[in-house]
Amino acid sequence: MSLLTIILNILLPPLAVFMKHGVGTTLLISILLTLLAWLPGVIHAFIVNQ
């Protein structure tokens, strides 16, 4: 995992997921989790981008 990916996982989780997986259900889940609360979105981004 690069430094850029780690920074994006923390600051903009949906963007980090989009860069790795593109548009799909993973991105939608990331957006929903980030909108509900920021921390679940960050955790999901780190798990998905491993």
UniProtKB/TrEMBL annotation:
<keyword id="KW-0472">Membrane</keyword>
<dbReference type="InterPro" id="IPR000612">
    <property type="entry name" value="PMP3"/>
</dbReference>
<keyword id="KW-1133">Transmembrane helix</keyword>
<protein>
    <submittedName>
        <fullName>Proteolipid membrane potential modulator</fullName>
    </submittedName>
</protein>
<keyword id="KW-0812">Transmembrane</keyword>
<comment type="similarity">
    <text>Belongs to the UPF0057 (PMP3) family.</text>
</comment>
<dbReference type="GO" id="GO:0016020">
    <property type="term" value="C:membrane"/>
</dbReference>
<dbReference type="Pfam" id="PF01679">
    <property type="entry name" value="Pmp3"/>
</dbReference>
<feature type="transmembrane region" description="Helical">
    <location>
        <begin position="26"/>
        <end position="48"/>
    </location>
</feature>
